[in-house]
Input
Amino acid sequence: KICSTEETKQVLRLSLTEFSLPKFYLLFGISKVKSAAVIAFRSSYRDRSFSPGSYERETFALTSLETVTEALLEIMEACMRDIPTCKWLDQWTELAQKFAFQYNPSLQPRALVVFGCISKRVSHGQIKQIIRILSKGLESCLKGPDNYNSQVLIEATVIALTKLQPLLNK
Output
């Protein structure tokens, strides 16, 4: 059985309760709704009035992503204790690293934050890559201070470096 111990079940119950609170809607970028289920399960097929432009999309702050990632990591680690051969975290880390080091203005900042939050070890080479990304973001900001993507990338690299720094050898 997956997640069979009482301790794991308790972590899952508490997490589900926590994620169901309206204060957590903001973390998922859906604070302007009365029920998260309304947005989560709404589809244009069932509800013809819904269209991508019919609601105002909220921005998803990187600090919110950090909080959500840490909460999901806690859930995953609780379940992994019950499954000795589980490789979920390794796979998640591998995917986060792949997207963190691949240029994509939409995904790269988010992947950097996730990579920083879930990594259990980090190499000097990975830190060098993140510093290069930070450098490119700073260069881009110098060219045009209104470059929002560069600012987000800088914020993401700072969050990632802050999370990864304790994992480095002295």
